[in-house]
Amino acid sequence: MDRRDFIRTSALGTLGLSLAPSLFTGCSTPAPRTAGSDRLELLFKPYDLKLKHAFNLAKNSRTHTPDVQVQLRYGDYIGYGEASMPPYLGETQESVCRFLGQLDLSQFTDPFRLEEILDYIDSVAPDNRAAKASVDIALHDLLGKIMGQPWYRIWGLSPEKAPATSFTIGIDTEEVVRQKLKEAAPYRILKIKMGLDNDKELVRIIRSETDRPICVDANQGWSSKEYALEMIEWLKEQNCLFVEQPMPKEMIDEQAWLHERASLPLIADEFLQRLPDVRRAYGLYDGINIKLMKSTGMHEAYQMAILARALDMKVMVGCMTETSCAVSAAAQLSPLVDWADLDGNLLIANDLFDGMKIVDGKISLPNRPGIGVVPL
């Protein structure tokens, strides 16, 4: 199926609409507008993110990430959102467009009823976390623009407290790793993808080039608790800050054993999706990695960060490969966290937005309302 046929069948096929030449395809028939009767209008389109380098993890490799771009309109205001779908999320462009096509946001005449709107979206169908996140992000962007304030200010956060972000080095050949290290020169922390049998060799290559701190994401790649402990103790000697998801998320007893013995902080990633998972992670991990595509968006991500802080857990905010839209949305949380891994927009070759920047390795939040992005 080519792109045009996909858009026609996914976004329009059951709605009786014609394919407009505009950038976005409408998911519902806009209600007639009269003075004082503005309603929410949702628009969306599939988009493929093209990676600058193949993204190699412990269990898969890819050169692009499927994505859906979203607009939420209310009067003269437009909020931008995004759903990014790496394979392990279990969502596709088709499933996201199908979910968005079920929503009837025109029933809402007051976009400030945030809880009511998001509860409705969550109730339409289970799972579909990235799809739900796309609307949540767009709604936050819309509300911030109406209020004329960025979300970090609405949340009462200080932008100067935003941390440095790590830059990801995937599993690859020595030549490509060295090239990626050159690209990563402006960044203070390197994030290393691990989970194969050449993990130590990858670190040795990096250490031959730089002594910058590293953090490690094993992506569930270590299936033995003894091996995981051995690697963690070795990584501590290599100036490693923490390790994400060392073992498969189902290995709860083994994770508890590892947590009692590891000398580096262990951060839950695949184990953790939404707010109830924060309490599940307590006692098994030292911290959590919050990603908007898992948490259903900014609203629940903020609640997760607050709960983790109350439990005295470390907090990290991360991302998938995304445009600057979703990355900038996640960055609004960054003054609240210990660590950030917000480089997803830097890994793609076809960004659509100008948003948050990295200045001297540190997150710099734009003083723009909403999530802080403008289309390129």
Protein described:
The protein has 376 residues and is of the alpha/beta class. Helices cover 34% and strands 22% of the residues. The protein has 13 helices and 16 strands. It has an 8-stranded parallel beta sheet with strand order 5-6-7-8-9-10-11-12. Strand 5 (166-169), helix 6 and strand 6 (189-193) form a beta-alpha-beta unit. The longest helix is centred in the middle third of the chain and has 19 residues, at 129-147. The two termini are 28 Å apart.
Enumerate the strands of the largest sheet in spatial order, edge to edge or round the barrel. 5-6-7-8-9-10-11-12
Span from first to last CA? 28 Å
Uncertain residue segments: 1-22, 25-36
The count of DSSP E runs of length 2 or more, i.e. the number of strands, is 16
Order of helices and strands: HEEEEHHHHEHEHEHEHEHEHHEHEEEEE
In terms of DSSP E residues, the strand content is 15-25%
Mean pLDDT: 89
Major β-sheet annotation: 8 strands, parallel
| Structural category | alpha/beta
From the spread of the alpha carbons, the general shape counts as globular
